[in-house]
Amino acid sequence: MGDRKYSIEEVTQRLGVTARTLHYYEEIGLIREVERTAGGHRLYSEQVTKEMEHILRLKNILGCSLQEIRAILDAEEQLTVIRESYHQEDSDSSRHSLLDQAAILLGRQVSLIEEKVAGMLEMKERFQERLDRVESKREGK
């Protein structure tokens, strides 16, 4: 599975998105550039496909904007660098500094998710109130 490349048709079917969406996400840098055949057709690796699945979860489940997704992906890249540096670092003070940086980045991610969840809960409450009114009228109250 690691070396297999997927055509754009396979990826769009697997992910449930259009080819234009994949092209656009590549154009704006949300997914890395993909390989191309001699004829110019895109070939997607399993890694890029998984990255796209992650982007779609952020968009569809959390309702993140493309700008928010970009910030999340940038933070994830920074966390990868921090993690690698942490494992190479011998100094306790340097490791502590790296942990501080990671905590800040992760705190921002948690805050974003909390904002999204709070918005969803508020919306749910509004719909629940409307449902309660409808149910009350149905019962003749």
Automatic annotation (TrEMBL):
The keyword Disulfide bond does not apply. SUPFAM superfamilies: Putative DNA-binding domain (SSF46955). GO terms for molecular function: DNA binding; DNA-binding transcription factor activity. Residues 5-75 form the HTH merR-type domain. Keywords: DNA-binding, Repressor, Transcription, Transcription regulation. SMART domains: HTH_MERR. Pfam families: MerR_1 (PF13411). This is HTH-type transcriptional regulator YfmP. It comes from Paenibacillus nasutitermitis.
